Amino acid sequence: MSYASTFKAIDDILRNEAGCSNELDYVEQTSWLLFLKYLDDLENEQEDNALLSGKEYKRVLTGFFRWSSWASPKTKDGKIDTVNAMTGDQLVEFVDQKLFPELKKFRDTAINTNTIEYKIGEIFSEIKNKIRSGYNLREIINKMEELHFQTDEQKHEMSFLYEDKIRHMGNSGRNGGEYYTPRPLICAMVKVVNPQIGETVYDPACGSAGFLCEAFRYMSQQINGDTKKYDTLQTSTLYGKEKKPLPYIIAIMNMIFHGVLAPNILHTNTLSENLANIDESQRKNIILANPPFGGSERAETKNNFKIQSSETAYMFMQHFIKMLKVGGRAGIVIKNTFLSNGDASKIREMLLDECNLHTVLDIPQGAFQAGVKTVVLFFTKGEPTKKTWFYQLNLDRTLGKTNPLNEDDLADFVEKQKTQAESENSWTVDVTDLDDNHDLSVKNPNIKEVVDARTSKDIANQMADLNTENTNLLNEIIDML
In what order do the strands lie in the sheet with 284-289? Predict the structure, then answer.
């Protein structure tokens, strides 16, 4: 059975589970089981590698808490030991009363927060087992045993499918949609920003960590067998923050599945940080983000910002500018209303004064399942904006759930952005031509508006002529009857 078929079979089981009611639950429950199976395979691999090099490997999970002990004990021929494998109430009782409490302890006993032990403790402190039928749980575990993560190809396929599950979660409704940015758009943004090993990459509203995962994949191609670069990428390159519990946990697991062993992701409200307290040591080279819009924050949170606003995305824009190092680069998804909204005028002024807003990508309606119209802002901190290059993504089809954005759609943008070439879909705006509100709304000068030159008298005469034609036609029909 293929990995995709296995994932689908697990979802089918969860649909019959009373404790799970939607795609968010399916992702959550699949995640913790998949994580423990993946961790067991990873530890087996590391144990084998240590043995070959004459070293000793100390396992993170030991004894009966290993997946291969409690979930899938094997017979001598390598098949699941159906006699000794727990099921029914016994299995649920073990998971709820022994496994989860044991794994939660890792958060308190870990040496520091940047360890896999601490991340295990975080995951199992936030997540709960919602599978109430031990028979359903046993069936899911048996399906999990069809998944193997020993090779890079297997790990890649698994991470791809996990991303696809997150995408479906994003399509499932308002809550899930907060956590998902279309992967093709993320890829294009990473290509434009072009992060290099040695630079730090930051997403302060990371959701399921799509930007960080793609940045890791992109930067991994720069390692070329250099262990120092590998260690740098693993430990001191990628940083994220997430306010909500479920996406925070999914972000950690998503990064681990993509190959980041101990993700630097904090469970915190970024907007609660006072901008005045951010110093140079905290700033980052690269920011990639799709900040939440709307929302609600306490009055004291708004006081953390020089330009106060009730719109969370506008607070985040100030955070981005403050958190970038001089020379740092950003790619930010934001509602297109930011470009012209009067409430954002002062933030646009700050952005144009402190950063070079060199590119604005206009995304068509339907790219995001939430239905919002968005743009992507690309800017570099440290010099004011003089000119901004706009690219309007005009497609020959309507985007939607069954017809999503793809990488080919963005290929022309990525290529033209390198030289900021002008075309039917791209143009340049001089900042000195902006009005006092710094209105940057997308107005493609290459698309000529069709002006109706008719006077009101012309229109009235044409309407009268049409009425006469209709009357004559009707009379002809009556005569024929």
Answer: 264-267, 238-242, 201-203, 284-289, 324-335, 374-381, 355-362, 387-392, 426-430
345-386 pLDDT tens trace: 999 999 999 999 999 999 999 888 667 899 999 999 999 999
Task: Give the per-residue pLDDT at 472.
Answer: 60
Q: Which residue from 185, 203, 90, 236 is spatially nearest to 406, judged by alpha carbons?
A: 185
CB 311 within 8 A of CB 294: yes
Instruction: State the pLDDT confidence band at 450, using cuts at 50, 70 and 90.
Output: very low
Nearest to 320 by CA among 276, 343, 351, 298: 351
Q: How far is CA 235 from CA 229, 230, 257, in A?
A: 10, 9, 16
d(CA 445, CA 219): 37
**Cα distance between residue 42 and residue 50, in whole Å:** 12
Q: Which amino acid is at 390?
A: F
pTM equals: 0.86
Q: Say whether pLDDT at 176 is over 50.
A: no
pLDDT tens-digit series, residues 70-87: 999 998 888 888 888 999
